[in-house]
Design brief:
Layout lengths: L24 H5 L9 H7 L5 E3 L2 E2 L6 E3 L2 E5 H8 L2 E5 L4 E6 L2 E6 L4 E4 L2 E4 L5 E3 L2 E5 H7 L3 E5 L2 E5 L3 E5 L2 E5 L5 E7 L1 E6 L2 E6 L2 E5 L5 E7 L1 E2 L7 E5 L2 E5 L5 E3 L5 E6 L2 E6 L2 E5 L5 E7 L1 E6 L2 E6 L2 E5 L5 E7 L1 E6 L2 E5 L9 E4 L5 E7 L10 E5 L2 E5 L5 E4 L13 E5 L2 E5 L5 E7 L1 E2 L7 E5 L2 E5 L5 E4 L15
Parallel strand pairs: 1-13
Antiparallel strand pairs: 1-2, 3-4, 4-11, 5-6, 6-7, 7-8, 8-9, 10-11, 12-13, 14-15, 15-16, 17-18, 18-19, 19-20, 21-22, 22-23, 23-24, 25-26, 26-27, 27-28, 29-30, 30-31, 31-32, 33-34, 34-35, 35-36, 37-38, 38-39, 40-41, 41-42, 43-44, 44-45, 45-46
Amino acid sequence: MTVHSDYSVPSVQRPAIRKALLIAAAALAAVQIASFGPASSASAAASGIGITVEGVVQSGWTSTLIQGTAYVPASSFATALGLSLDWNEATKTATFAQGNRKLTLVANAKTAVVNDARTALSGAPVVKDGALLVPARSVAAVFGASVTWSRAALALSPRLHPFAQGGKQGYVNTFGETVIAANYDQVNEFSEGLAIVSVGGKFGYIDAFGKEVIAPQYKQAFDFSEGLALVELDGKQFYIDATGKTVISPSYDELFDFSGGLALVRKGDLFGYIDRSGKEAIAPQFEDAFYFSDGVAGVQIEGKYGYIDRSGKIVIPAIYQHVSDFSGGLGLVQAEGEEGEGSFGFVDATGKLVIPADYAQAFSFSEGLAAVELDEGFGYVNAKGEKVVSTAYGDVGDFHDGLASFEQDGKYGFINRKGDIAIKAQFDSVEAFDRGLAKVLIGNAPRLIDAKGRIVAIAPAEADAAAPAPAAK
């Protein structure tokens, strides 16, 4: 099967929001190098190029351009990616390490050593005002992390993935190399710098170094979202911060993740929203409701769906059979059909149907394209509604990391943005690529593959997920 980020008929399952953030300040201090000290952040800050980690803006350190290459302060960069860092002042040599992978570079030298092999850097590391600055993209690539430009900021992604070994679980990088040993009963993807792990049936959180930040103690634990995570202990649900401190304990029948500064809650059969103080921001009044995205959230009123803003004001009337979260400035909607299911189109933030509801099936935008059902098979349209990719496949997925799944003769593979086959159809089930790897099934065996289709690690089985996202009842 192909897994879409949104379905043509929205499910009541609400996936946990994953927006990685730099780990807590206490954890940051653990790897700061005395030789660099505060000057590391101060020196880079003068350059003024912002840095994000998984889309979240960072404070205290920035990037600078030197002859067209983006440089970052070594110590803060290492912390963001979960790397250890050793600095030899006498030789001006820095050694980054993660798992069995080691990078050694020297100030003012454009070559470095990865384990025992020499490699070229995009620019020579430099010492400025007592701080070591390193070429971001070159260092990140060595450890399987990614560095891209996004909205005039340098966007970083550590890209660690759960894997299984000997009945236990841990984390690998995008090369399939062990970064955090498989010592846990269950693990989950990283979110905001922390990942859920399970030991002996209890859940807690670790950081990218594998350090236990919040000890396993909860019956249930969910991903961090906007700085808070929902947990359950002794039959009660409440929200904690990244230190494990209880922040709010709202009294509702069911609680969900935060999005857009508000958390979805259920009281009886109705849904509403609370703010970060636990105060009721939008009273429970909706028959169904979803997370906020692009400033709006889908809600159900008298059997029909529309959208509200963060004040609870209806900004797009509830006239649709179904709606999905906004993505790329557009929301997927299903119009009313004369006999059952209606067709699909897309609305903008004003409620204007900018792409007519002409499709029997359609899915939300991802990486600027949306999958839609055409006469000859599935294809993709852009935000103007123009058909840009056509295929003959009866099932396709969303684009992630530049690849989308497709089905052919009962097997699944991946196509690129031109519609060409990038990984031939050979798997029994696939999930979307995420931060460099995708989970696939070969028979009943779960595996992780890279963008070339190469198996790099054994993936945890579906039943081994650390904790499912909360779901509306």
